[in-house]
Amino acid sequence: MDLKNKIVEKAYELFSLKGYDKTSIENIISAVGCSKGGFYHHFNSKEDILVVVVDKYVMEIEKCLENKRDDSFINNFNRIYEIICQNKLGKLTKRNEITNLFGSMKMIK
Known about the structure:
Layout: H1 3-18, H2 25-32, H3 36-42, H4 46-65, H5 73-87, H6 95-105
Helix pairs in contact: 1-2, 1-4, 1-6
């Protein structure tokens, strides 16, 4: 796995555990074990990482929904919710981790 993907994976993990606001760039750098230069080669800010994390997350959901779309908003919403629960939230063991993850996603508007 290349450095950029390692940074994204660790950021996702830390955002889930600590929340976006309580995760610093230093926390991410330390968890990845890279230099500040390595970090800033790929990202200008913590918000840049969040954009990539959310984009990646949305793309994973879209892959799961391919050819399964329905005209009904409720059916589509239920499928998305089920995918989130099965693929992502199932890996998180604590309720506050789930809250932190979704709190992080609200940051992008």
